[in-house]
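Possible regression after last week's pipeline update?

I re-ran a chain I had predicted before the update to compare outputs. Posting the input and the new output here so someone can diff against the archived version. Not blocking, just want to make sure nothing changed silently.
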Amino acid sequence: MPASAPLPPLPDRPLSICVVGAGAIGGTIAAKLALAAEAAGLADVSVVARGAHLAAIQSQGLRLTTPERSQVVQVTATDDPDTLPPQDIVITALKGHQVPPMAEALGRLLAPHGRILPVVNGVPWWYPIADGSGGQKGAEEVDPGGVLWREIGPERAIGAIAVIGATLPEPGHVEVNIDGHFDLGRLPGQDRTDVERLATIFDAAGLVTKQTQPFQNAIFSKLYSNCGFNSVCALARAPMNRMLADPVLFELTRDIVMEVAAVADAEGAELLEDPEKRLLRARVGPAFKPSTLQDLERGRPMEIEPIFGAALAVGRSHGIAMPKLEMVTALLRSVDRAED
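New output (post-update):
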């Protein structure tokens, strides 16, 4: 469907849902939806995975372990989205850099009325910024060449932020450590009928939801802490509380947080927690390692562009200088190249 075409409503029948990227977060979503499919009003739940994880799901099912129990659910699993029928809802739970190469396949996977729910860290590809010509586009850092904007269209996207703790201890097995919640929403002026329906589906499956409105409040409330904590923890190779115990690193983190807070203000977003209080809470909190540090320690590519690069892009669209975030982003890019 062209991005400019009117978007039909979701059909009034049980829906099909495909989770693309069934790792820790995606696998949790898929397993819970499949276990409660009838109660949640779903016709089918499928996953797109790869490698040993895919093989385990196909041969043994997808195992979900929570503090209460361990269950196995059978789901349709494939590594090729083109083998699946068009889907009413597609949920992507991938690293930011993994999504653009799949733009065409995701576009084919969506039914004409289909919605996409990108669960991402940082600035999502569908978030509009000024294109310099009086129009809007996604940040180049998360949507190179505008391929997702073109092949899928931002009007199809329902905002999603995952605030849960889950791991993948072995192929085919996802484990939930912190139930948390999912924040779902749309930007001001956008119809939210599909958000309400998806929230009902998630809630019926035991996936607790919030609906922060306007949704940029949720985006920037997570982005300012991601930009500050994730970057400095990775460069210092230290968990949050230990990193923030150093006065110099505390001030660097604070400067980055306040740079992003200024961009949030320019975007009309209201932060859900005062940045100063968030910094102090993290300093006396547990020895938590943000995802960027975890990726670095495990030799995986860090999510630099969706979190840091795209935040800089939004700042540039307002003419806001962000020298401290720019500095740590350049350092992280250099570290990432050295790890290749």
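Follow-up from reviewer: compared with the archived run. The chain is about 40% helix and 20% strand. Marking as no regression found.
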